[in-house]
Amino acid sequence: MAETSPVVFFDACVLYPAALRSLLMYMAMDGLFQPRWSNAVHEEWMRALLGTRPDITRQQAERIRDLMNEHASNYLVSGFEHRIGKLWLPDRADRHVLAAAIHCRANLIITFNLKHFPVSAIRRFGIRPSSPDNFISDLVGAAPDLVCRAARRHRQSLKSPPLDVEIYLQRLEACRISNTVKALRNLSANL
What we know:
With 191 residues, the chain is α/β, with parallel strands linked by helices. The protein has two domains: 7-131, Rossmann fold (3-Layer(aba) Sandwich), CATH 3.40.50.1010; 136-186, no CATH class. The protein contains eleven helices and five strands. It has helices spanning 12-15, 18-29, 39-52, 58-71, 81-84, 95-103, 119-122, 132-142, 144-157, 165-173, 178-186, and strands at 7-10, 34-38, 76-77, 108-110, 128-130. It has a five-stranded parallel β-sheet. Helix 8 (132-142) runs parallel beside helix 11. The longest helix has 14 residues, at 39-52. The radius of gyration is 16 Å and the shape is globular.
């Protein structure tokens, strides 16, 4: 992985949709960024998944978590808990995300809940908030070949059933990343 790739801390809401989580993992494995998360973040997205998908067991969710940790070794952030009480955010429940992001020297916090991470509260730590859509769209602009390769590998890994490019893009669009999908549609011959 390139040393210059940004360190990115993921909020649980970004890791909850399977299609988005998997695309991000493929992009990370291709060195587009260095992902970070914590056990608290894992617990949040797994709790949300289990609450909305009764067909998925706790063991299945834990397997996904374990695979993420295995494929992105050294990306599990710990030892940040002492920072939580010193931080202010509009939603106190999100302070653990900021604390972990500070601890691992993240450049970005990727979240759908941008108002929970106002620039005024996190800028002093050298961290910027970004939506997943803006984050991935920026990567498409900066490294279209690498993003397309990651998306292609992700799409080809889906075998039950296999997805053609358009269905794949529709599944991504359901993850609220419409600008990304628009950019990828323009590059669909590479997917």
